[in-house]
Amino acid sequence: YAMLLSLIFLIVLVAAVVGFVFRHEIKTNFESNLNLALRNYNVTADRHSEAVDTIQRTLHCCGVQNYSDWEKTEYFTQRGIPRSCCKTQDDCSEEDLKDPSKAKLKVFVDGCFFLVTSTMESKMSVVAGISFGIACFQLVGIILACCLSRYITNNQYEMV
After folding, report:
1. What domains sit in the chain, N to C, each tagged with a CATH number?
2. What membrane topology does this protein have (predicted)?
């Protein structure tokens, strides 16, 4: 049991170190994937488009760096900026979303990349604290399992 807990502890420790060391690569990868999702955005029910809509609605943002990122997409030429960027759904018309100067007043202007990364970084201390607490419980479990094993082994030899 102590060996199993030790193995799990090492796996969690390695995952934490790898996540910390490669955090910049994770950010770069996320930004390129978000750009790709914008380029391939459409209104059909594909999960990348739904993810972009969810991020934009939840974080009140639009595009990768800002709302003008949508102007470079094929979707913009057909329908304008997506409705998930609108500050209020009732006030956004399709004509407004096709005109960048009018859309600036009706959509969120901040980009999603900065908001997502800053949200992740602000929550990292909570994640690190929870991980540290779990690691402490695992270490206590490892120590107690070793003590129990030693106690059982010592008592067997005394009985004989």
Report:
1. 1-158 (1.10.1450.10)
2. Multi-pass membrane protein
